[in-house]
Amino acid sequence: MVTRLASKSQQLYEKAKELIPGGVNSPVRSYPPYPLFLNSAHGCKFRTVDDEEYLDYCMAYGALLDGHAYPETVRAVKMAVENGTVFGQPTEQEVLLAKLISDLVPSIQMVRLVNSGTEATMHALRLARGFTGKSKILKFEGGFHGSHDGVLVNAGSGASALSCPDSQGIPQETAKNTLVARYNDEDHTKRILRDNEGEVASVILEPVMGNMGPILPEPGFLEGLREITEEESIVLIFDEVITGFRLALGGAQEYYGVKPDLTVLGKVLGGGLPLSAFGGKREIMEKLAPLGEVYQAGTYSGNPVSVAAGLATLESLRTRAGQVYPSLESTGKILRSRIAQSADSYGLDVQVNGVGSMFQVFFTNKPVVDYQSAKTSNPDLYRKFFQSLLRSHVFVPPSQFETCFLSTSHTAEQIEDSLAAIGTAFRATIE
Ligand code: PMP
Predict the structure, then answer these.
(1) What pLDDT does 416 receive?
(2) Ligand 1: distance of its center to the CA of 153 in Å?
(3) pLDDT at 89
(4) What's residue 330's pLDDT?
(5) Ligand 1, from 61, 64, 118: best to mutate by most atoms within 8 Å of Cβ?
């Protein structure tokens, strides 16, 4: 009898499970039979501890627009590290980055740098409450804004995939201040705002939902939200942690031409290092301490290494924007239509959603326009699809409720190879 030796990933997973809950430091990284453990990554490929190479369409959940270990970013990080990794005091580079962000993102006049998307949405929401003096917030079903108390209500991403959209451990007194509306349903949103008139501090949304797979705003939806929030003096927050610097240099607000009051940025901003930001109208941002009485602080905020990575990433993207965004847009469009054709050739009912460099496949015959329609997708078929792609050494997010990402490092040839793997994966769902 031949005994199959456990791979190094499998062995590490066994050890990790003893020490780290579920063996992973973020639940979305968990999938059966065990997650791959990585050694390195360059461009659109990563290598595992078993020295196997995979083509990556997860791109650290959208953090890497230019691929892994982008040379300009790596150079900037190396130089920054040599000069000290944290000061707890201001630097010139923070000012340069703040200027660059406010130049690129249409609605941002002032900005504060923090470390993660979770932190940034948490502070943006506190600021909106402090500014308006109101307590309630409204989010959308399936929208994900990080893992702090007020937004883990009807949340997408891993929270939905792992059946805890409403996390335990959140006091009822907190959850009751979070109202939930249906994405792309302006009437429903208006009704909820009317029922809570004078009590809502903020409407927060991902302008393109990325945490149910990509779901696009229907024409007029963002404009409608802008109108009603303006009328009711509610702070409109665009959570552009995924879409910022990805859909366009100025994010979804540039792409769709709608300006929020506050914007949350993360992922692409840091070029692969922990860096996020929230910013917007001067009169709101000036409510933050030390100018105002909304408190927010952080030892690692504006960390010099992350800031160096952010500056290098944004400066490089600004130089190449005329080529990068149209090219991602057209490659994304072709890829989505080829995936749809491939599914069709196997007689499968699928929806291929996406915009720009974002895409996902839903195994359903219903157009996916909100949380409920996303939930009609067959999870077993997605699992088979994911596992088959993994066997072909193509990595997409293990959960249906995530987005796949193209980067500038994916070549036409690699995309062609992936389409063959996607065809095989579609076949695997009907076998
Ligand atoms: N907002 C959105 C739209 C996100 O997609 C995410 C993470 N996937 C977050 C906030 C939280 O960001 P982080 O993981 O950096 O805390």
Answers:
(1) 96
(2) 15
(3) 98
(4) 97
(5) 118
Indicate the top mutation candidate among 145, 205, 240 to test ligand 1's pocket, ranked by most ligand atoms within 8 A of CB.
Answer: 145
271 within 8 A of 312, measured Cβ to Cβ: yes
Structure tokens at 163: 């059946």
| Residue 207, pLDDT score | 98
Separation of 270 CA from ligand 1 center, angstroms?
Answer: 13
Q: How far is the CA of 348 from the centre of ligand 1 (A)?
A: 32
Q: What is the pLDDT of residues 259-317, one digit of tens each?
A: 999 999 999 999 999 999 999 999 999 999 999 999 999 999 999 999 999 999 999 99
